[in-house]
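For the sake of transparency, this paper describes our internal protein records without simplification. An entry from our holdings is shown next, in its original layout:
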Amino acid sequence: MHLTSITHRKELFELATRWFADCPLRGDGRFLTQVTTYENLISAPVVRDLLTGIKQAVHPGPVTLTRLRSKDELRDAIVASCRNPGPREQELFSLYRNHPEDFFPGTPSDVMLGLREDGTILGMARIKRLRRIAEKCSRRVADRLAGAINERARLLAQQRAETYGIPLKELLSSKQEMAQDYDQAERIVSRTFRDGVLVFKPEDLRIDDGIGLKFVGTPEEMDSMEEAIRRHPSVLGVVKEEHRGRYNDINLLVDLKVPEPGVLVDLARDWDWARHAGKGLTPQELAEGFPGFVEGGQRSFRAEVILTTASDLVESEFGSCIHEARILEQRAGVTYSGRIASNASFLIEYMLMLALSPTLEVGELPVKMWGRYLPDVYSLAVWRLFGITLGRDQIDHLVPWGVVDAGLAFEHGL
């Protein structure tokens, strides 16, 4: 994956593409652990400085910060902050109070919420969960695979047409023949990973919203916010996109300059590395590895900044374009969901779970892109990273529906 919110995005992309070709290297696990431990320390001071600059541009007064752990808490905070709800807000809040089960209750979300003195929302910041990053990257892989498989299937149909001596457009294929073409095309494409033929480009797997900021204000305040971003000394460039329709906002992809390595090392000098215990590296190893990691990274990273109004914020969390509903639409619209996509999805999630687990290295990857596996194989491999060995009966007990998702189970403490 090409995660633009980190400074070691090039190395992470190369690792992911090597894993797709079944070429893990000694040291991959250590690197992944360092990425999930160090990158926040690198980006945090820059993001905090940017937040301060935007805040001062529209609201020089004090701001109260609150940590939220779920979308339920965020929606409750939005309701509480809306002092004079209009008819549309009243309608949506009434639906939320009377039918909370329609609003995806229990959705985890790690958000830092900023409130003005009057209790209205000024903004919020969040870092996308690893699981959502893995899912988003998997969709990128699926889109790339869909094109490759469809093109190969078309070539197979072309070959059949040639055996009959007719143009492809005149070939009448049965459903069985088309299914056979597609299955054969899938096998051929899957083996190109083993042979190093199918190569992803960074743009194929790019994810720009690993770090997300959202600011809420009047249209005039939004103009001031955008100007403050463009003039901020850490900002290297801004890509702007405006969304108009069911939900309106201004989306800015902001490239930020990383401080000099010595500055970051000084800022992290008193960091409590023991808080990362259980991830395979000792606090001393983490402290000693930080300076070299900072030196080896790129000197910029990207954050997504959304500027919106209070009414559009309500619409995005309660109305016709609820974020969770958009996620379900994206999942339903995946162009390819066959076995290669499933294997790619697992490998991406597996590398992220490795970074969080006490296991530091893996010898052989548990799946190959060109293989065929039952979901149980995926589950058992992730559990083993955390030193948990489960029998089939135990897995069936944990996930009685037969769809095993070890990463999700671990996130919920199972």
Summary: The chain is about 50% helix and 15% strand.
